[in-house]
Amino acid sequence: MIRRLILLAPLALAMAGCATPDLDARNEPPVIIFFTGDSAALEESGVALVRAAAATAARHPTASVRVLGFADPEGGRRFNQALSRARAEHVANHLIEAGVAPGRVRSVARGPVPFEFMEMESRRVEIRFGE
Asked: CA–CA distance from 58 to each of 25, 67, 83, 93 (Å)?
């Protein structure tokens, strides 16, 4: 009896209008977009990556989309926190413009990362699916 309930739970949630997790989306690799210096502006290559991420999101219509913004540790912590937020929000807005439903997209400012990353690798946004 319990096994039958476990198997029927996703169907019942879907019928009730509740989103069920798209576990296949977690297998998608994150899309990583790099930025220059103290900028939150997307270059053409970044715009193309956002479009690719939107296509991935379309293949997984129930999966959440997290946009994580990072900055390098140069400069003040407050500045870098704001910069990582601006990067994440900018990319999230482009995803929404590309057709991803706003309720699926969540942007998170991770702030500066330690120097164990190269400077350029720190200036990035990661788009993750199904988390």
From this structure: 10, 16, 28, 16
